[in-house]
């Protein structure tokens, strides 16, 4: 196994084929990950942080492509909620993604990129790969698992399918299944990618063309769901771009960006294409759409937690309309029905779904209290 580091991405090659929910097996699986803080002698202080849809393992160190700080850098470090003086923090890139773990851009056994030949994956498959990674590391039981959004789905799936592997499960701004509206938003993004001529049926690797326009539109549509109406209004309102001497705005998509909010979304979309793979976006959004923890366990959500050996903390935000508080309450009610110890809090924040990634001091206190309590 590679030596742990706080800066460089590490890689683990899984020693066996990875079985998938589809019935297929994935060969030569590589898991890219990063760690922060030291693992103690009895390997009991490890915390697994599960990233969201377009996140990665660069939790608290600069992103190698964008140069931007890690996506949760503000809470990882000595004395911070994810306290590296006390805990060994692990964050891995999910399978199907594009930051080092095996995904559609990886080479298949025939030596060519998988593309759309990559097998269908689920949230449970992602967790199965993480458990295999922990087995290689020799970590039998985690001190905790923390995940927001899709990361929360992974945390729930781990607790349900590997009930003895974690002492604490923290689920932030997440859900036990996608609604029809969630699926609909994702489908708009997927269709935008597949309608881009540069997509080429997913076989664009090495062609010199990538479906950046389609991927950018998909990101723009998704990004709207991560924000709140109040936040957008406060930040942009209906303000027009300030243009000296009557100059016209951007023409990234054929029309001028007259409104500030248009320019903001175009920036979000275009900058996203620098660091993410379109096929990975197709596969991972589909995995979240398939996620239905109750259906996996006979149709009753409480039955998913029958054998759990974990304590739970569930957190929602009052402005999150992607995964509203009602979704978190459903999880809490199921945990109560299965007699699992659980605490729940709805936090007030103006940022919508993205609140878990932004500066919400109340969330910091909840994380620290739960992990150290």
UniProtKB/TrEMBL annotation:
Q: Mind telling me which GO cellular component terms the entry cites?
A: cytoplasm
- GO molecular function annotations of the record: homoserine O-acetyltransferase activity
EC number(s) given by UniProt: 2.3.1.31
Where is this chain's protein located in or outside the cell? Cytoplasm
- Record-listed substrate binding positions: 219, 354
Give the first-level EC class, as a single word: transferase
Q: Which UniProt keywords apply?
A: Acyltransferase, Amino-acid biosynthesis, Cytoplasm, Methionine biosynthesis, Transferase
- Name the catalysed reactions: L-homoserine + acetyl-CoA = O-acetyl-L-homoserine + CoA
Residues of the active site are 149, 320, 353
Q: Which GO terms describe its biological process?
A: homoserine metabolic process; methionine biosynthetic process
Q: Which family does it belong to?
A: Belongs to the AB hydrolase superfamily. MetX family.
Q: What does this protein do?
A: Transfers an acetyl group from acetyl-CoA to L-homoserine, forming acetyl-L-homoserine.
Q: How does it assemble?
A: Homodimer.
| Entry protein name | Homoserine O-acetyltransferase
Name the species this protein comes from: Croceibacterium atlanticum
**Source organism lineage?**
Bacteria, Pseudomonadati, Pseudomonadota, Alphaproteobacteria, Sphingomonadales
Q: Which gene encodes it?
A: metX
């Amino acid at each position: 196994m590679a030596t742990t580091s706080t800066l460089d991405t590490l890689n683990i090659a899984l020693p066996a084929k990875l079985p998938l929910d589809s019935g297929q097996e994935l060969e030569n699986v590589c898991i890219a990950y990063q760690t922060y803080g030291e693992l103690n002698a009895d390997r009991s202080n490890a915390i697994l942080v599960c990233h969201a849809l377009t996140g990665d393992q660069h939790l608290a160190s600069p992103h190698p492509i964008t140069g931007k700080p890690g996506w949760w850098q503000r809470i990882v470090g000595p004395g911070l909620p994810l306290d590296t003086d006390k805990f060994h923090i692990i964050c891995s890139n999910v399978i199907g993604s594009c930051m080092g773990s095996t995904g559609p851009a990886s080479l298949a056994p025939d030596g060519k990129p998988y593309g759309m030949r990559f097998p269908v994956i689920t949230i449970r498959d992602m967790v199965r790969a993480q458990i295999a990674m922990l087995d290689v590391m020799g970590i039998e039981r985690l001190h905790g698992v923390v995940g927001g959004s899709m990361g929360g789905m992974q945390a729930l799936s781990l607790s349900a399918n590997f009930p003895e592997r974690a002492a604490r499960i923290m689920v932030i701004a997440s859900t036990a299944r996608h609604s029809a509206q969630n699926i609909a938003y994702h489908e708009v993004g997927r269709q935008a990618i597949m309608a881009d001529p540069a997509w080429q049926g997913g076989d664009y690797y090495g062609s010199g063309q990538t479906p950046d326009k389609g991927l950018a539109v998909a990101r723009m549509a998704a990004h709207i769901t991560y924000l709140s109406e109040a936040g957008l209004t406060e930040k942009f309102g209906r303000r027009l771009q300030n243009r000296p001497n009557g100059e016209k705005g951007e023409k990234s998509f054929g029309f001028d960006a007259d409104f500030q909010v248009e320019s903001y979304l175009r920036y979000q979309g275009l900058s996203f294409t620098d660091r993410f793979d379109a096929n990975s976006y197709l596969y991972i959004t589909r995995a979240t759409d398939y996620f239905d923890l109750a259906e996996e366990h006979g149709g009753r959500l409480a039955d998913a937690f029958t054998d759990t050996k974990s304590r739970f903390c569930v957190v929602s935000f009052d402005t999150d309309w992607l995964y509203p508080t009602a979704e978190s309450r459903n999880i809490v009610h199921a945990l109560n029905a299965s007699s699992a110890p659980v605490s729940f809090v709805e936090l007030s924040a103006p940022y919508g779904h993205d609140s878990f990634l932004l500066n919400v001091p109340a969330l910091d206190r909840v994380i620290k209290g739960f992990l150290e309590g």
